[in-house]
Specification:
The structure holds two protein chains of two kinds.
Chain A: H1 4-18, H2 23-49, H3 71-78, H4 80-112, H5 118-130, H6 133-144, H7 149-154, H8 170-194, H9 199-207, H10 212-223, H11 225-240, H12 244-249, H13 262-272, H14 276-302
Helix pairs in contact in A: 2-14, 3-14, 4-8, 4-11, 5-8, 8-11, 9-10, 11-14, 13-14
Chain B: H1 2-21, E1 37-41, H2 45-61, E2 67-71, H3 78-88, E3 94-98, H4 100-108, H5 121-129, E4 146-150, E5 154-158, H6 159-164, H7 177-189, E6 195-197, H8 212-219, E7 226-227, E8 230-231, H9 236-250, E9 269-274, H10 277-282, E10 288-291, E11 306-307, E12 311-315, H11 322-332, H12 335-345, E13 348-349, H13 354-357, H14 359-364, H15 369-375, E14 378-379, H16 387-403, H17 409-423
Parallel strand pairs in B: 1-2, 1-3, 6-9, 11-14
Antiparallel strand pairs in B: 3-12, 4-12, 4-13, 5-9, 5-10, 7-8
Helix pairs in contact in B: 2-12, 8-9, 9-16, 16-17
The chains are: A mainly alpha, B alpha/beta.
Chain lengths: 304, 426
């Protein structure tokens, strides 16, 4: 009986430490480790690097990486290339996000109705999403380059210089490309959300004499609001991180850096030039910006 | 209870971070250690064949110092792959594809072995390469790379397009800028080519090596972009070259957007700036001719300098058996191995005695003779700190002023020269 008391006390201490179901930690451990190793550790390490004149070095090499405080952030904020990249993100989001929401919502509604070849269209819209970016970019190059199909069709109406080397057109083309490529995913999100809108609401609006268009705006759009919040936030986060398009479609952020993006700059400074401290500062400023925009979106879209 | 659970979680996270932070540390090996080594070589078919043959020959007589060869892992560029491998400590002993422009960066990373520390290091390199070896010395006066093989660039042209345009393919007028521009105009107007010449107009730091830099070297009679810390391009020679290219872009004789596929092989472009590797690649597809790069007022072919497009061999600090690596390196650049390289790839070993050593090869392959002559007058990228950043700054100024014309060349080059002056000193 005397021995049972310390044993019970020890169990109580263990329970207070681990909770009522300690095995839960075991189940959660793989994901926690994944999260820590792949996201948390690099994230905090990036914050650390951003305060140093950091560069990657060989293991065991004796190198000097002086602490520079906020100097990297100050330099980034004064860098005209970063200003250009942020301007490009804004142009991109202004075109991409509304188009993504509008087109995918309309197409999802159409594909939810009993139309002929519905399965074919659902697959057709999804194919660009799962196609490798390099292949999809190849098609757009064939369409929009100076010797491309669109220029040929437009003839004298084609812009000069042509789309991809035109400072005015390069970013809109990139935004259109990303909208087209991602549409399949967002249509899928809206299709799933459409199943949650009670059919009675449509019947009631019909009884009240609403046309299909009125019913779309009065029932579908409000019913899809939670999905729209998800679509907007996802589109903003993925959109603000665009990289493949300036890298492949416009020859490295061309013309003359007019389509350069923050992530492209991270690649250039961090990987090509081995200035990861400076690149990390760009990354963190971008993350803060995306967080603010997403917060505003959430605030606006979640309001009743 | 809530707090203690948080403490426990923090401990788990901390432990994980600790584990993740624990990298293996590579202690520098001594320069005389012997044993098995691994090397990487380029992944083009001709060099793979050469690499396999040289490794097999070495392994036959070195049972205790076997060499394992692998193709360099795929990546956007070899420099990025090597840079990542240095950081991870996974570089092999030798890489037969080290770009001179990346050497200062690899050296700063602590990734390269100083070859001059071997008792015969500097003398071996200088004995083989001659005066040109000096271009490969690092600012500290040591060699961190063995100059291996060059691809001196020249103007390659499509004889069929020249004939179609009514131009003499045996004697093309490409010596002066005026001649070149006039020929280029005729090729596009009458030859049916989309472009007279189509260098990549994209923003990568290394693109100047295949448009501005060879012509600048020729025009300046062999100057590097930067010499003794002073940019050399912001003067009459640099501006003349830039204005020449600007005219090609302005007249749409050189497109401002990237070609889809190989523009020269597909006949979209009548000319290209390439090294001798092109003979093997285009030989069967295009009826080709070759000419030195142009200069403003024309120059005797025997006096024209050009860009070397050289690749070096680097020994990496993760190497445990550096004695074997040094011995194998010397074996791989011996007269016999270099002869095999020339024979299999057509690329020019960085030897001062190239023409005399392999005279029978050049007699049998006269098409390579022009490139071999040019190799003796090839110039490298400067070996300076922040080399990649320097080239990127130059490319940005060039794109802005020459390709897209949104700034005057004088202004852009002055800005780039000021930036570069600071960069190469830091």
């Amino acid at each position: 009986m005397a021995a049972a008391v310390p044993a019970r006390a020890s169990r109580t201490r263990l329970r207070s430490l681990l909770g009522a179901q300690p095995i839960g930690y075991l189940f959660a451990a793989p994901f926690v480790l994944f999260l820590v190793g792949i996201y948390a550790y690099p994230f905090f390490y990036a914050i650390y690097m951003s305060f140093f004149d950091y560069f990657f070095s060989a293991p065991g090499a004796e190198v000097v990486r002086p602490f520079v405080g906020l100097a990297n952030y100050a330099r980034v904020l004064q860098d005209p290339l970063f200003h250009l990249a942020i301007r490009n993100v804004v142009i991109f989001l202004v075109i991409n996000v509304p188009l993504t929401v509008a087109i995918s919502m309309v197409l999802a509604t159409a594909l939810n109705a009993a139309i002929p070849l519905r399965t074919f269209f659902r697959a057709a819209y999804y194919i660009p999403y799962i196609t490798a970016s390099v292949a999809a970019v190849g098609i757009w190059l064939w369409l929009f380059s100076g010797f491309g199909l669109v220029d040929k069709i437009l003839g004298p109406l084609a812009p000069n210089p042509s789309f991809l080397i035109n400072g005015l057109w390069a970013m809109p083309i990139i935004a259109l490309y990303v909208t087209w490529k991602g549409l399949g995913f967002y249509i899928l999100v809206y299709l799933a959300a459409l199943q949650t809108i009670p059919k009675e609401l449509y019947e009631a609006s019909k009884v009240d004499g609403a046309s299909p268009v009125s019913s779309f705006f009065a029932v579908t759009v409000p019913g899809l609001r939670p999905a729209t919040l998800l679509v907007v936030i996802t589109a903003v986060i993925t959109g603000a991180n665009f990289f493949t398009e300036p890298y492949l479609l416009t020859g490295g952020g061309g013309p003359d850096n007019q389509s350069v993006s923050p992530v492209f700059l991270i690649y250039r400074f961090g990987i090509e030039q081995n200035h990861p401290g400076y690149a990390a500062a760009i990354g963190l400023l971008l993350a803060i910006g995306v967080l603010i925009v997403s917060g505003i979106n959430r605030f606006v879209l979640e309001r009743d | 209870m809530f707090r203690s659970r948080h403490v426990f979680l923090a401990a788990v996270v901390g432990l994980s971070l600790g584990i993740a932070a624990c990298g293996s540390s590579n202690l520098a090996a001594t320069g005389s250690a012997k044993g098995a080594i691994k090397i990487w070589y380029s992944n083009n078919a001709e060099e793979v064949k050469w690499g396999d043959a040289v490794v097999a020959a070495w392994n036959q007589s070195h049972a205790s110092e076997q060499v394992t060869a692998e193709q360099i892992p795929a990546g956007k560029s070899s420099e990025e792959v090597i840079g990542a491998a240095i950081t991870a400590g996974t570089t092999p002993c030798l890489i037969f594809n080290t770009a001179p422009a990346a050497v200062s960066q690899f050296q700063k990373q602590g990734g390269l072995v100083n070859l001059s520390k071997f008792s015969d290091g500097s003398s071996f390199i200088e004995g083989r390469t001659g005066d040109r070896a000096g271009q490969y010395k690092s600012p500290d006066g040591s060699y961190y790379q063995m100059p291996w093989k060059g691809n001196p660039v020249m103007i390659f042209y499509n004889k069929d397009i020249f004939t179609k345009a009514g131009l003499d393919p045996a004697n093309p007028a490409l010596k002066t800028y005026d001649e070149f521009l006039s020929t280029a105009q005729t090729l596009v107007t009458k030859g049916g080519a989309k472009a007279a010449i189509w260098p990549a107009p994209s923003s990568e730091f290394y693109q100047p090596w295949f448009d501005f830099y060879p012509l600048f070297i020729a025009q300046s009679k062999g100057k590097q972009l930067v010499e003794k810390g002073v940019p050399q391009f912001n003067n009459a020679d640099g501006l003349a070259v830039a204005n020449f290219w600007k005219q090609l872009y302005a007249k749409n004789l050189a497109p401002k957007e990237a070609a889809q596929g190989d523009a020269f092989a597909s006949g979209q472009s009548a000319m290209a700036i390439v090294g001798p590797w092109a003979i093997a690649v285009y030989g069967g597809k295009v009826k080709w001719g070759v000419a030195p790069v142009p200069t403003k007022d024309g120059m005797d072919a025997a006096a024209v300098h050009t860009f070397s497009d050289e690749k070096s061999i680097g020994m990496y600090s993760s190497c445990k058996s550096q004695g074997t690596a040094w011995d194998f390196l010397k074996f791989a650049v011996s007269k016999e191995s270099d002869g095999k390289l020339l024979d299999l790839t057509g690329q020019m070993p960085m030897r001062s005695d190239l023409a005399s050593n392999y005279s029978s090869y050049f007699s049998a392959h006269p098409e390579y003779k022009l490139f071999a002559d040019q190799a003796a007058r090839s110039v490298e990228v400067p070996n300076v700190p922040n080399s990649v950043e320097m080239w990127q700054d130059f490319r940005s100024a060039y794109s802005k002023s020459v390709i897209f014309g949104s700034q005057s060349i004088d202004e852009a080059f002055k800005g780039a020269a000021d930036q570069i002056k600071t960069l190469v000193k830091s």
